[in-house]
Amino acid sequence: MPDPELFTRGPLRLARSLWSTGDVRAEPAQLRRLRMYAAAGDPPADAVVQLLEELPAGRGRELFEQALTGGIDSVSDAPEPLVAFFTDVEAPPYWVDPDRLERGARAITRTGLLGMFPLADMSLMGGYLASRAAKTLVSTGDLEHMAPKRLIETATWWLDVTTPGAMRHGEKGYCSALRVRLVHAHVRAAMNRRDDWDYESWDLPVNQVQTVGTLLLFSQVFVLGTQMLGIRYARRERDDILHLWRYIGWLMGVDEGLLPAGEDDAWRMLWLLASTEFIPDEDSRRLANALLRSHSGIGERFGPLSGLVSTASTGLHAAISRMLLGDANADFLDLPNQRLAKTAVLGLAAANFATETVRSFVPGATMAQEKLGAFARGAYARQLGRLVPLDPTYASHMRSNSSNAAKTRRK
């Protein structure tokens, strides 16, 4: 098949030539197979959400949390949907390698706060190009009207699941992954109750294709983004990062037939998603503008310099987005195109690359960078917690999504 637009020009074309191996293009039959997953949800999680709706208010969530932290055997007379869900997730697949999970998390950790820029400016902004997935985001209302809060929640969740040791059974990242899986199932149920959901145009809400797309944005696109900003990885590090996200994706209910087993798989999946999913529309632009406004808000605390700081902030974030998305997509999303900001980002990338080159040759430097990155990430997480009261169970999102769906039906 011919290359999709994202791969025919701009940054991704260059990135593929630098970091991919072989021909990543798909055959028509492979694309048709992928599209079959656009009608697939997550039956085990969907059954748990239905159970929660049938039980007395709060009781189902209490049972879920008990099984999540104490194991399903700690729940006496557990309902069958809960037993089926946790019996599955408590028995990890044969391919899960705990050592690789730890190495992947350490490789992410050593990027420190620099890793947060690709998360917001490439992963999230790139996700808005997927117009069908954007329909759910716009329908919930949260990402457009509460963009700063949701950006902080996404960053906090990402820090949870990428911290070394956090994906062990019962640990913070493990619990966060399964809680968000439940949120996805709840959103899917809420959207399915809407009278205006267009299945023919938008597919099943929060379907398997969209979920694996999110996984690729947080894994492969993160790796690409940090490399564009000057971070250097050994091949084993890149594969270990993707192994970590393969397990996170499995916990979050992504079908094993879609989970990339390594970097070559991830490139092929990214190519398929670019062919069928990353097609922006007006909702993509609305979400991008909401995210830009959240970046602009940083200037509010600087008094007379607020306008200058806001302009600089949006310009820098937009310049990082353009590094991956290319000018054509960035222009469609109405991202600023400031020459000074682009020059500053390129200078930062060059400086990072020089520093990373030195690190790769100095004994002990990688371990020191991991410790420094862990310290910076921990301090950043604490700062985020002070900015916005966070609900680690995400129960509030389930209530708000149900409320939004009900309002839409009344209209």
UniProtKB/TrEMBL annotation:
Species of the source: Haloechinothrix aidingensis
ER-bound oxygenase mpaB/mpaB'/Rubber oxygenase catalytic domain boundaries: 112-344
GO MF annotation: an example: oxidoreductase activity
Superkingdom of source: Bacteria
Pfam families, per database record: MPAB_Lcp_cat
Name of the molecule in the record: DUF2236 domain-containing protein
